[in-house]
Specification:
Length: 228
């Protein structure tokens, strides 16, 4: 079993997890928005308690957002520094992918429309399908205008989509944007560090790793395109 360190600083509470020998140990900040002060001590605590050296890690997995701008920069910066110093491969996981992974674990579903609130009347969006032990992005992630009267967004057909994430508080408007009616919609869902590690394990198995310069925050600005 690979040894993975996972970092999620995309929300107010920063979390760290270490996976080794089929066991996972999780640590989190005691106070909200304290990533700058507590992230590195959390990582040190995790490694010491597991008796693992940084050089023994197979990869460092990081939630890359969208999320808290400052928190993301701190988590990604820490991973870049540790990866560069120890030649450790890095793996970035989108927060939208984590929503889909959590929904897959909790529902047994196969197709997910992940959405997070952005600013004004916008939401972040990504379509994901189950693939192996993780989920795979269909097309590209994007920002959608909730009240846009443009034609419905094209989605891969023949799938029973599950809506997941806080962006779905605008369910009626988003269903109109996609031209669908959902049977299942999970506005509130808990993403676990196991979800982050499972996504990381799948990418590691397929050699989808990064070096420090390639690990960047996921600001989600690309245009939707499902035609390819």
């Amino acid at each position: 079993m690979p040894k993975l360190l996972a970092i999620d600083s995309s929300a107010s509470t920063t979390r760290v997890a270490l996976s080794s020998d089929d066991q996972m140990h999780e640590y989190s900040t005691l106070e909200p928005r304290r990533a700058a002060q507590q992230l590195l001590p959390l990582i040190q605590q995790a490694l010491q308690e597991a008796d693992i050296q940084l050089t023994e890690l197979d990869a460092i997995v990081v939630a890359t957002g969208p999320g808290s701008f400052t928190g993301l920069r701190i988590g990604i910066g820490a991973a870049q520094g540790l990866g560069m110093a120890n030649s450790t491969p890095l793996i970035g996981i989108s927060s939208l992918a984590l929503l889909a992974q959590a929904a897959a674990r909790q529902t047994g579903g196969k197709a997910f429309l992940s959405s997070l609130t952005a600013r004004d009347d916008e939401v972040y969006f990504g379509a994901y399908c189950k693939a192996g032990q993780s989920v795979k992005l269909q097309g590209s992630e994007s920002v959608l205008m909730i009240f846009d009267h443009a034609p419905p967004v094209d989605l891969p057909s023949g799938l029973d989509w599950i809506g997941v994430g806080p962006g779905w508080q605008h369910r009626n408007e988003l269903e109109n944007r996609f031209g669908i009616k959902l049977d299942v919609c999970l506005v509130e869902i808990e993403v676990s560090m196991r979800d982050l590690l499972d996504c990381g394990l799948e990418k590691l198995a397929h050699g989808e790793t990064l070096i420090a310069e390639e690990l960047l925050p996921n600001y989600v600005k690309e245009k939707l395109d499902y035609r390819s």
